[in-house]
């Protein structure tokens, strides 16, 4: 009896110590523009969430047990009192020598005593079972406590980012290179008009040129069918060794292209499934503000061997093909924000976010197709050309293997060996 209550109290103490544990977890509602993007934090705190959810059930079970034990305790107590009282009465009767008179009464009382003793045995069995339950619960609590301690230790340690982020910062990657950075990797940049610094992958070559990479496709590991907010903020993963896919984010690209007086060149690099590499440069590249739906503008096709797909393409379907597939001056569209020149939604039917016209001749955020060649049948419910397309190189039913979109000031694009240097650098990917 008593030991069981002590054990219950012990279990309750455990509960109290649990309830006071700080709530932790990674159930953050959503990512913000800069926080967490490109960071590598453990997500095992999700286990803590699970445990915290489980706690109230155990707590309820234990209070239920406690109530039952209290009831049994009261019953047993009163039964014991009654037995004592009856024993006293019996001895009084015996002493007074009135056995005959009280014989019947006494035998009834003895029956009662026997019944009460039976009840007590049953109750003791119940108590024994309940004690077993408590012990098993205590074992579970101890396990949970152990787990909680482990998780707390994990959660109290600061999120260690094992990714190597270089200490040099600048307005963009060229500025970072100008300040002495010679190695490609992750750097923080803060364009003049930006409110906060953000992480970028800088590709720094042996000529001291620093390219700020804004888009990367390489293996189809990231789905590019994202909504307006995701394209605005960026998605995918930045990696210090350039092994992951991402979209840096329209807001950051906007800041990078409008806060310098020197025109920005957008360099596009493409790899097909045979390993061939080509590139295209566009100078005076700018992305408008969100109020203008991140409109794409550039001055002119500056060069390259991939051809000028941004200028549109005559597919032979219609005389206005080229006009309606050009991209200069187009606003950005996503499946939830249609800013294209088409009755339907290009972004929805082609599964991407892009500067859609009606719809495209270049489509680098398209669906990833292993092996490259695909058909209307592969293209899903709409059946349109939705791959990673640069139609002045490969036709629209060929999806490229790798793409890179990156920025560099015009003043640096021709330095260190001119166009050929760019090709060589690219060849070293
Ligand atoms: Ca439309």
UniProtKB/TrEMBL annotation:
Swiss-Prot/TrEMBL GO biological process terms: blood coagulation, common pathway; fibrinolysis; platelet aggregation; positive regulation of heterotypic cell-cell adhesion; protein polymerization
Compartment(s): Secreted
Keyword tRNA-binding carried by entry: no
Residue ranges annotated for the Fibrinogen C-terminal domain, each copy included: 164-411
PROSITE patterns according to UniProt: FIBRINOGEN_C_1, FIBRINOGEN_C_2
Entry's Gene Ontology molecular function annotations: extracellular matrix structural constituent; metal ion binding; protein-macromolecule adaptor activity; signaling receptor binding
GO cellular component, one term: fibrinogen complex
Keywords of the record: Blood coagulation, Calcium, Coiled coil, Disulfide bond, Glycoprotein, Hemostasis, Metal-binding, Secreted, Signal
Cleavable signal peptide: 1-21
Pfam families (UniProt xref): Fib_alpha, Fibrinogen_C
The keyword RNA-binding is annotated on this UniProt entry: no
Protein name: Fibrinogen C-terminal domain-containing protein
